[in-house]
Amino acid sequence: MSRRHYNLPPLTTLAAFEAAARHLSFKNAADELSVTPGAVSHQIKALEGDLDTTLFQRKHRGVDLTEDGQALYEALSSSFGRISIVLATIRNRKSGGKVIVGSTTAVAALWLSPAVIRFWREMPDVNVDQLSQDRPFRDRQDMDFFIRYGRDSDPNLSHTPLFRDHLIPVASPEIAKRLAGASLAALAAERLIHLDSEDRTWTTWPDWFRQLGHEGTIATGPRVNSYSVALQLARKGAGLALGWQRLIQPMLQSGKLVPIAPHQLTAPNQFYLVGRPDEDLSDNARALKNWILQEVNDGSV
């Protein structure tokens, strides 16, 4: 292959490799890059041929990185991450100081959106864009930071701890009254609202019962892929939801949902503000970040 100044192979092969290595899946890399798995495989074979080494160990179910593959992935991940930060900084200067913050739909509705409104009242000249989705934020080039439960796998991102929540069963007032003081076994027999999330860091009903020592079976119930929907079903008496106590505090204070005492579990992970390091944030982004941290310290969540 012809070489340029930095003696690099074609960037398309490096991009395909980095995505496949990050996902440990040619198929998921193809989905991200909007190409076919065959195209990803072709690019990686070309790169392996150019480097005269094997970068992946092909297995029956998926792939693993070889020693050379791991070394190349770490270099590319760090470099691509730094390039992404610089590009986002340039775009931010061109956007008039706009700040972009992300979260799940539930975090946005229950806490982040009210916090941003309070921020706007104090700093009306700062434009804040909110991105809400119930799947991991993989495409983060333009985002300043996002709120995440648990640490992100990207080593280039800064993590600022926010708080550690407690997980409690919650239900409508009628159901909560009936189940007050119920045992774990009794709760496990109730209709449970299960959350299916692409992000495996979220604690589920089976996790909750197991960590509290319940070894029996647990009931089935409706399955949803949105925490906001799970809370709405619980409000309407459709079953028990697993409540993040600090996050759903507004619904608890209003009486729309009622905790079922006495069982609770300290969340295994913390909530974090995840994004670019402070030195790479604009003044407006740092102002919003500091506002969010102050809101947490003041007990708004």
TrEMBL record:
Q: Which segments constitute the HTH lysR-type domain?
A: 9-66
Note the InterPro entries from the entry.
LysR-type_TF_proteobact-type, LysR_HTH_N, LysR_subst-bd, WH-like_DNA-bd_sf, WH_DNA-bd_sf
Name the Pfam families for this protein.
Answer: HTH_1, LysR_substrate
Transmembrane spans: none
What the entry lists under PROSITE patterns is as follows: HTH_LYSR
GO biological process terms, alphabetically, are: DNA-templated transcription
List UniProt keywords, sorted A-Z.
Answer: DNA-binding, Transcription, Transcription regulation
SUPFAM superfamilies from the UniProt entry: Periplasmic binding protein-like II, Winged helix' DNA-binding domain
Q: Name one GO molecular function term.
A: DNA-binding transcription factor activity
Query: What is the similarity comment for this entry?
Result: Belongs to the LysR transcriptional regulatory family.
Q: What PANTHER family does the annotation carry?
A: GLYCINE CLEAVAGE SYSTEM TRANSCRIPTIONAL ACTIVATOR (PTHR30537:SF26), HTH-TYPE TRANSCRIPTIONAL REGULATOR (PTHR30537)
Name of the protein this chain belongs to: LysR family transcriptional regulator
